[in-house]
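Please check this:
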Amino acid sequence: MPVNSIHIPTYPYYINGDWLESRSGQTIDIYSPYLNEVIGKVQAITKDEVDEAIISARIAQRDWAIRPLQERAQYLYRWADELVASKDEIAATIMKEVGKTLKDAYKEVTRTAEFIQYTVEEALHMHGESMRGDSFPGCSKSKVAITDRVPLGVVLAISPFNYPVNLSAAKIAPALISGNTVIFKPATQGTISGLKMIEALHRSGLPKGLVNLVTGRGSEIGDYLVEHDSIDMISFTGGTSTGINIAKKSVMIPLVLELGGKDPGIVCEDANLFESAKQIISGAFSYSGQRCTAIKRVLAHENIADNLVQILKEETMNLSVGSPKDESMIVPLIDHQSADFVQGLIDDALEKGATLVTGNKRSKNLIYPTLLDNVTMDMDVAIEEPFGPVLPILRVKSDQEAIDIANQSEYGLQASVFTNDINRAFRISNNIEAGTVQINGRTERGPDHFPFIGIKKSGIGSQGIRRSIESMTREKVTVLNLAE
């Protein structure tokens, strides 16, 4: 619901069930990555307004935590229904704001509704446990422990631009169903999509104060939110440097951080090259590679590298490039700064002797899919996370060399291993330092109930629906001392 619709709409923020304009009088422009124009303005709220949001959430949480689980569930079911009912508007907003194709935007909204519904069902089937004292030597059966999970309190949910609805709801739904309240800070580029999602939640009739949407400049409210004494847990998805900053500034509160990746696709000499190439291309270039789980480098055995490169070249040259309105696979990157960074990685590799197989063409913030062969570890593209459509190929002499190169990375999100030998697959997988290893498939998040884990600088904690609920709750033990 725009505050005004004169030419460029200005959107409110959301506190205690009300849609408000900031007392700062300031707004932030939101640009479309493919229209290259301002499509809306969002509020730049103040620290005082942040305080009001957090106080509102803390007061509301007391009542919410003691409500029956089935009652909390009904609000979330209605939220999922409202998302589906407004999927046309939300999907169109996602496309315009973050440059995702309309087909993928629709999928994101549908997936989000399914995520919320599954979250409710998972919570309804999570139970506590009891333990008898006499199972431990010297203790009596008259002592019985009852263990349950209780909410942490106020959860700060910070979401990224690339899945502005799905990855936001993936934080909000587990928090709400387990009795927490939420301060929701969307990525600046993605705020309007997040706001549309919260409009659907508002229509569900959710009690006031349970979810508050705050928008503003990171320089003004970012650190203030993270360091606030009344925040009880932080769930963040975004860049590694920001995640590290959050980890340093947050003190003595639980964190779940989903950060960057440099996911390798290891192609063994016995792999099915055509199927491997299909998975690699999809993994590397969907949504222009703007995914933390994108395949960001190929480690190919030298005996099959020539054949693999030729297949990858043909597949890459056939990718559709252009506007998300045309359902193109390769679309403009989120902003010009991101495109400059990707172009810099390409330029550096070519200057240092990499072979350009195809690509290295640019129009504004649209980078054409670029394939680089004979990449070596002294090139930035072999090490840095591009978050764009560039795929470096490093040739290796053995499985062990591929493992060594993969593990040199500061990241450890996912990896893919392509081989027809299941023993070889497990041998490589067991030695890869990553949260998840995909066998003969592309790196990707999901299904959403699977564990999703980052190690090293790829994150802290575990996600996946059940694990997200667990991360936003703590165990509480009540001990019964019965008369013998």
The radius of gyration is 24 Å. The mean pLDDT is 96.
